[in-house]
């Protein structure tokens, strides 16, 4: 589970990368990708896609996280880069939708109340 050897040639040439070196390299990549994603830069999205592809190798948990990461990064390009949607814009849109939902609920309750009142008046 997760015991991966990236490039295995011969130990005499010094080309072999063992498991712990692989883990060090991927840890640095995860760290850099995390910084890029936190800053929501374009390169952070690309780094996230690369790290998600690397995570696919680690069966079964890494595969699950890799697939979820690929869906998230490939499906959400508007969240990264210079023309990204900011947190303030998302918060404003969320509040507007919540306000609209409350108004619709209030209108629905008022219409139901009016319908009951009309039904009572017509039954008398």
Question: What features would you describe in this structure?
Answer:
The protein has four helices and no strands. The protein is mostly helical and about 120 residues long. The protein folds into two domains: about 1-85, no CATH class; about 85-124. The chain is elongated and about 90 Å long. Residues about 1-10 have low confidence and may be disordered.
How would you describe this structure in keywords?
124 residues, mainly alpha, 2 domains, 70% helix, 0% strand
Q: What's this model, at a glance?
A:
By secondary structure, the protein is mostly helical. The chain contains four helices and no strands. The model is unreliable at 1-10 (pLDDT under 50).
Sheet having the most strands: none
**Compute the gyration radius: what is it?**
26 Å
Fraction of residues in β-strands:
under 5%
Indicate the structural class: mainly alpha
Count of alpha and pi helical runs: 4
Question: Helicity range of the residues?
Answer: over 70%
Q: Low-confidence segments, ≥5 residues, pLDDT <50? A: 1-10
Mean pLDDT: 81
Query: What is the terminal separation in angstroms?
Result: 76 Å
- Name the overall outline: elongated
Order of helices and strands: HHHH
Q: How many structural domains does the protein architecture include?
A: 2
Number of strands: 0
Topology:
Blueprint: H1 19-39, H2 42-55, H3 61-75, H4 87-123
Helix pairs in contact: 1-2, 2-3
